[in-house]
């Protein structure tokens, strides 16, 4: 067996123990990977039947395109990152070689024939967007506003907006996107910032962290993004709602994985990938098995492609030389996606240098793909010795000065004349808002807000109320919001609209009026309370999110109605309700405690009571903590399901609060309740939150006499607390809130060797899923007694998986210790390429082959 050149590195990092090299470094490849002309490259494409691909632009007109965007007149703006990996060690990256160019088709033949450099001498430019007062450009780590004052398509001024925009100097981990949402904010991937132009100034606001490279939104404005290892995520709720309650950490709604499908189907070998040395990354033909460089998801909202492509999400995979198509479906407010054609990609190439990195919809309704066309796609900071050796040996350092833009259209397609919207009248732009084409609606909204023409108000209100396209009607409302011309009477009238999206948009836009006007607030409460019991799930979701602007009695009445419906079974609904209960969780808990419907047990109610208790503890108000203990410590009442759930919430919340202990007159009776002995964690929580005469000081989780010590550190306790909430949202539906399993769903976790054994093996199960039969504590479980397959949870990030595993290994009397984020991350890397669930036999064999003492 040949020892590769990177053997010392693997030995030093510990990776070698997880990698078995059984082949030499000269596998058979499809070809020698020659550098092709655009015409030659076009011949390498395999495209979905019925479609054709056309060259729009190529070098020298464009080089190293990483972002493409069409302006109001159909000109194609291109961000050219020409300094990216121009050498194998990125030694010239800091040189000002990047630019933003504007491409034009002057003779209307479908190909760009003129390029104007709008902005030159840029250091690693990475994003651009059209703004109401210029063009936003991200480069050299900062965000700039540029302006062309004389109309020659060349920037005359460049003003700093935010010097800290990127957040990192590394291209793979720096902010990007500048995606204008329906709400007139500009959102970013790999970032916690969003930006908006208001009253002539730019403001920056914090928002949830999203994705890695590229953003898009669907017709309802839901943001879509991804990570290099997980191809498609989305926000199921509008930004910044679920993070409104500091006492609650949501586990759903934001960064929702739409699909666990990771498999890709290249049509050529892909040896030049960063982890190609890890068994399972490449198949026997050296083709990449799963996503490793997923980027730039685009929700297709155009009209040129056939109807079945509408609202599909396309994802670039430059490492596999392909683009995947996902079909998205909705179950109420929850989205899911599936591969449109398993076994065959939407677009793939036999050219190793085909590097799709960005996509856009054009004003003609067709799909455009930016092809960076180069050998090296991995940045030097993360290039393994294996990949460097591959790159040099196969001459993939060249070319560095190419780039192509491709257009995908139906066969025999003819472009219709496109109107130059920059010259359109206000009435024409309002008509464009009613277009079936998403690009036209977005551009019309942008231009109307940029013109700041108050005279558009009447026509926009008419469109919002009577338009034929519900998405255009909603965008008319957001246009009015950008112009600060919305009227509460119109918005109130739309709360009973026939289309749920128009209802939820009106509800969101009513919030600022309700916050400042008691009359509007009262009318809004009346309307919502009248319809809450029959409203569809997506409308109820927005009601839960918006309840925070109502007076507390009305808000709590509305939220009680929502949580008393079966909708509470959805984790997203529970998170939404809690987001509107900031600092009033205790009052709402007491309301439910007395409600007739909340006297009988139900798994969803149990979870919600626990979440309420956790939030009360995290708030840390002494009077509420005293009252909470009184509710639990009542010998006159049986210790039922509500008390058990509330005690669990107290225990979880105690590890995430630093509140001063509440002074009691004597020790809580809970500590010595014979029928319900406390666990070590519960005892520790009480000693952490309360103080009493003669108390023996103990940290959370410290064992009392006769109890087994909990092995978790303070940081691990926080991970445990997070894991509990994520378990309730993600796992309890099959394994039960108490880990005892559920008939016809899943086996128990309590005292399971699969849970208490090797942490890496457990991580593998969560990452890739598992199919039966499976032996747990001496009993064999198999379908139909349980579901045939436990699904993969690979869309969860490493910290989320580590939290869940830490929780189940240390709950229910377990004491198996924590699972670290690093272990999960390393396990994810070394098992890359696994695209089917484990069987017991496969998993045990894998563990034995990779250095475990036994399969278990």
Which regions are unreliable across 5 or more consecutive residues at pLDDT < 50? 1-27, 698-710
Report the portion of residues in β strands.
Answer: 15-25%
Largest β sheet strand count, sense and barrel closure? 6 strands, antiparallel
Fraction of residues in helix:
25-40%
Rg, Å, rounded: 29 Å
Number of strands: 32
What is the name of the CATH class of the domain at 7-410? Answer: Mainly Beta
What CATH calls the topology of the domain at 7-410 is Neuraminidase
How many separate helices? 25
Domain Cytochrome c: 718-812
Signal peptide: 1-28
InterPro entries: 6-blade_b-propeller_TolB-like, ARM-like, ARM-type_fold, Cyt_c-like_dom, Cyt_c-like_dom_sf, DUF7133, Quinoprot_gluc/sorb_DH_b-prop
Protein name: Dehydrogenase
Fold and architecture overview:
- About 30% of the residues lie in helices and about 20% in strands.
- Among the domains are: about 400 residues, 6 Propeller (Neuraminidase); about 140 residues, Cytochrome c-like domain (Cytochrome Bc1 Complex, Chain D, domain 2).
- The protein is built from 25 helices and 32 strands.
- α18 links the parallel β27 and β28.
- Strands 1, 19, 20, 21, 22 and 23 form a 6-stranded antiparallel β-sheet that branches. A 4-stranded antiparallel β-sheet has the order 2-26-25-24.
- The protein has about 850 residues and is of the alpha+beta class.
- The radius of gyration is 29 Å and the shape is globular.
- This is Dehydrogenase.
- Pfam families: Cytochrom_C, DUF7133.
- GO terms for molecular function: electron transfer activity; heme binding; metal ion binding.
């Amino acid at each position: 067996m040949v020892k590769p050149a990177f053997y010392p590195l693997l030995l030093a990092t510990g990776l070698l123990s997880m990698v078995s090299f059984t082949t030499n470094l000269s596998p058979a490849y499809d070809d020698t990977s020659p550098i092709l002309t655009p015409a030659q490259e076009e011949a390498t494409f395999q495209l979905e039947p019925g479609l054709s691909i056309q060259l729009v632009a190529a070098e020298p007109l464009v080089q190293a395109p990483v972002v493409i965007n069409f302006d109001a007149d159909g000109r194609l703006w291109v961000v050219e990152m020409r300094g990216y990996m121009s050498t194998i060690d990125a030694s010239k990256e800091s040189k000002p070689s990047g630019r933003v160019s504007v491409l034009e088709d002057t003779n209307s033949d479908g190909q760009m024939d003129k390029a104007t450099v709008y902005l030159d001498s840029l250091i690693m430019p990475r994003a651009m967007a059209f703004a109401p007062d210029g063009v936003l450009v991200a480069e050299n780590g900062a965000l700039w506003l540029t302006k062309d004052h004389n109309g020659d398509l060349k920037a005359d001024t460049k003003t700093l907006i935010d010097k800290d925009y990127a957040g990192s100097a590394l291209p793979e981990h720096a902010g990007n996107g500048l995606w204008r949402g329906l709400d007139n904010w500009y959102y970013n991937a790999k970032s916690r910032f969003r930006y908006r132009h208001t009253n002539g100034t730019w403001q920056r606001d914090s928002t949830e962290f999203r994705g890695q490279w590229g953003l898009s939104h669907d017709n309802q404005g839901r943001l879509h993004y991804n990570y290099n290892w997980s191809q498609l995520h989305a926000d199921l709720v509008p930004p910044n709602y679920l993070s409104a309650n500091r006492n609650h950490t949501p586990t759903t709604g934001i960064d929702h994985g739409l699909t666990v499908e990771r498999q890709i189907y290249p049509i050529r070998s892909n040896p030049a990938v960063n982890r190609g040395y890890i068994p399972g990354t490449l198949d026997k033909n050296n083709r990449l098995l799963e996503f490793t460089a997923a980027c730039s998801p685009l929700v297709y909202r155009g009209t040129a492609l056939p109807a079945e492509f509408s609202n599909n999400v396309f994802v670039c995979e430059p490492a596999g030389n392909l683009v995947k198509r996902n079909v998205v479906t909705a179950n109420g407010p929850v989205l899911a996606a599936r591969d449109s054609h398993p076994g065959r990609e939407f677009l793939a190439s036999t050219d190793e240098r085909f590097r799709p990195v960005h996509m856009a919809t054009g004003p003609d309704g067709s799909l455009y793909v930016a092809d960076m066309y180069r050998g090296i796609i991995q940045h030097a900071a993360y290039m393994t010795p294996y990949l460097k050796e591959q790159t040099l040996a196969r001459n993939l350092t060249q070319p560095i000065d190419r780039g192509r833009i491709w257009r995908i259209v139906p066969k025999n397609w003819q472009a219709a004349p496109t109107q130059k919207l920059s010259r359109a009248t206000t009435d024409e732009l309002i008509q464009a808002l009613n277009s079936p084409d998403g690009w036209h609606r977005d551009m019309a909204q942008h231009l109307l807000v940029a013109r700041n023409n108050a005279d558009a108000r009447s026509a926009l209100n008419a469109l919002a109320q009577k338009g034929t396209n519900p998405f255009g009607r909603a965008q008319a409302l957001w246009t009015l919001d950008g112009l600060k011309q919305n009227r509460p009477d119109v918005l109130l009238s739309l709360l009973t609209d026939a289309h749920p999206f128009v209802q939820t948009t009106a509800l969101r836009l009513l919030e600022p009026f309700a916050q400042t006007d008691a009359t509007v607030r009262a009318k809004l409460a009346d309307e919502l309370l009248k319809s809450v019991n029959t409203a569809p799930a997506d409308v109820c979701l927005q009601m839960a999110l918006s309840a925070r602007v109502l007076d507390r009695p009305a808000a709590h009445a509305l939220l009680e109605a929502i949580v008393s419906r079966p909708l509470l079974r959805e984790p997203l609904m529970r998170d939404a309700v809690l987001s509107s209960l900031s600092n009033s969780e205790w009052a709402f808990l007491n309301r439910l405690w007395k409600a007739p419907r909340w006297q009988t047990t139900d798994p969803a109610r149990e979870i919600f009571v626990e979440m309420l208790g956790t939030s009360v503890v995290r708030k840390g108000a002494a009077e509420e903590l005293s009252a909470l203990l009184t509710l639990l410590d009542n010998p006159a009442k049986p210790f039922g399901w509500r008390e058990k759930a509330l005690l669990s919430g107290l225990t979880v919340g105690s590890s995430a609060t630093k509140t001063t202990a509440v002074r009691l007159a004597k020790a809580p009776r809970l500590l010595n309740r014979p029928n319900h002995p406390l666990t070590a964690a519960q005892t520790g929580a009480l000693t952490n939150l309360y103080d009493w005469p003669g108390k023996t000081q103990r940290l959370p989780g410290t064992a009392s006499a006769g109890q087994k010590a909990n092995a978790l550190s303070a940081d691990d306790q926080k991970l445990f607390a997070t894991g509990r909430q994520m378990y309730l949202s993600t796992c309890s539906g099959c394994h039960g809130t108490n880990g005892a399993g559920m008939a016809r769903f899943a086996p128990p976790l309590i005292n399971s060797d699969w849970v208490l054994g090797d942490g890496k093996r457990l991580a593998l199960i969560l990452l890739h899923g598992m199919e039966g039969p499976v032996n747990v504590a001496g009993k064999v479980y198999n379908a139909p007694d349980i579901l045939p397959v436990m699904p993969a949870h690979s869309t969860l990030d490493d910290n989320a998986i580590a939290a869940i595993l830490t929780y189940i290994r240390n709950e229910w009397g377990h004491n198996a210790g924590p699972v670290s984020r690093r272990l999960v991350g390393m396990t994810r890397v070394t098992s890359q390429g696994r695209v089917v669930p484990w069987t017991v036999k496969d998993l045990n064999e894998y563990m034995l082959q990779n250095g475990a003492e036994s399969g278990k």
